[in-house]
Amino acid sequence: MPIIKNLLALHKNTYLFLAVSWLCLITLASLVSVKIVQEVEHGMEVPDKLVHGVFYFVNTLLFFLYFNKSQIKNAIVKVSLFSFVYGIIIEVLQYVLPYERSFDLKDIIANSMGILIAIFLIKYALITRLR
Predict the structure, then answer these.
(1) How many CB atoms lie within 10 A of CB 6?
(2) TM spans, by residue (predicted)?
(3) pLDDT tens per residue, the chain (131 residues)?
(4) Pick from 28, 57, 58, 67: CA 20 to 30 A from residue 90's CA?
(5) Which three-class secondary structure state does DSSP give residue 15?
(6) What is d(CA 1, CA 114) in angstroms, rounded to the nearest whole number?
(7) Number of C-beta neighbours around residue 48 at 10 A
(8) Which helix (DSSP H) or strand (DSSP E) does residue 11 occupy?
(9) What is the maximum alpha-carbon separation in the chain?
(10) Is the pTM of this model over 0.85?
């Protein structure tokens, strides 16, 4: 799998840059006004829950790749827990902030599905390459 080889060959600081950039993208996309999101989404028919899953899948994967030099099991747990809690914080902020966004339990479930798929990929595809 050349994609996995290339992904694993990046420098550790590159993973950190990508992970933090991705987290900023998630935050921006999740907290901007609904009107802005509707303008960007105009003409795109991508299900909202799929977007949530992809956001948190990539987030979990990038942060794992940054932390993978530590104990792998601990890295998976810490990164997954961070992604999950971050998703909840975003949902609470959507409820509290006046940007016409709302808290949605289904978004948290979609985030969790993305995290679980990332864990599966990490455990069964990447860990064998890392060792």
Answers:
(1) 9
(2) 15-38, 50-67, 79-96, 108-126
(3) 555 556 666 777 888 999 999 999 999 988 887 665 555 554 555 578 888 999 999 999 999 988 876 567 788 899 999 999 999 999 999 999 887 788 889 999 999 999 999 999 888 876 666 55
(4) 67
(5) helix
(6) 22
(7) 13
(8) none
(9) 48
(10) no
